[in-house]
Specification:
262 residues, membrane, mainly alpha, 11 helices, MetI-like_sf, cell membrane
Length: 262
């Protein structure tokens, strides 16, 4: 057979295997039991409106506050990473390697348990919201710092040199010329980082939250235990997808626009 013929046959076999696998799974699945355990409408109705007004709202707030803290801290660390002062570079590298190497769960436990034990008088602004913002910010800042550093280095060196020839100081040129262009470059990866933070906010359940501070995962887990049914967890997962899928599509669109602009 010719190469084209072989490729057509190979695709046909793969399609056939996929169809057979779907038919077998569909035939073997207990659809009545699946509907009862994952999509019980009577249980799903009990989730509203708290699912939206409490769980989803808290998840969004936790994500945005953590992203804000991480972005500011990440920018500072990125500038330290690019500094001509060696101790600043060493400190930035130590921060990045330390927080990138630790699991996010360990950071949450450290912020929620370790810090209050080590510093009994310390109080986070907003209590649980402050703890979550700090934990998510510490984790995300390490990744954002490297993303921002790469964006700054991607700006042509001539931009900074041209600004300096016009009489701008180095700080003014970075603030007015380089950093704005860098952020245009790194918008897609920063949006992707927000998607990751939205999912990492589920670790809030390890901090010990009240009923009004629960996010989607904690909310779904509690209702699943109460109702002895997994529908709340399934619905909570759908809420995550309702946010992360559009954000993922936005990331792809931004990447395509950036590639076209380049």
């Amino acid at each position: 057979m010719s190469p084209r013929r072989r490729r057509r046959v190979s695709r046909g076999v793969q399609y056939a295997v996929f169809v057979v696998a779907v038919v077998v799974v569909g035939a073997l699945a207990d659809w009545q039991q699946l509907q009862k355990q994952f999509l019980d409408l009577s249980v799903a109705q009990r989730l509203f409106p708290e699912l939206i007004t409490v769980a989803l709202l808290n998840t969004v707030v936790y994500t945005l506050t953590g992203f804000g803290v991480g972005l500011v801290l990440g920018l500072v660390v990125a500038l330290m990473r690019l500094s001509s002062v060696a101790p600043y570079r060493w400190l930035a590298m130590a921060y990045i390697e330390f927080f990138r190497g630790l699991p996010a769960l360990l950071i949450f436990i450290f912020v929620g348990v370790g810090v209050p034990l080590a510093f009994p008088g310390i109080v986070f602004p907003g209590e649980t919201h402050g703890q979550v913002a700090c934990a998510l910010g510490l984790v995300s800042a390490a990744y954002m710092a490297e993303t921002i550093r790469a964006g700054i280095q991607a700006v042509p060196r001539g931009q900074l040199e041209a600004a300096r020839t016009l009489g701008m100081s180095h700080a003014t040129a970075m603030r007015s010329i380089v950093i704005p262009q860098a952020f245009r470059i790194i918008v897609p990866p920063l949006t992707n980082e927000m998607v990751l933070l939205f999912k990492d906010s589920s670790l809030v359940l390890f901090l010990g939250v009240t009923l009004q501070q629960r996010e989607l995962t904690k909310f779904g887990r509690d209702l699943a235990s109460t109702t002895a049914n997994t529908t709340p967890i399934f619905v909570a997962g759908l809420c995550y997808l309702l946010v992360t899928v559009p954000l993922g599509y936005l990331v792809r669109r931004l990447e395509a626009r950036h590639a076209q602009a380049r």
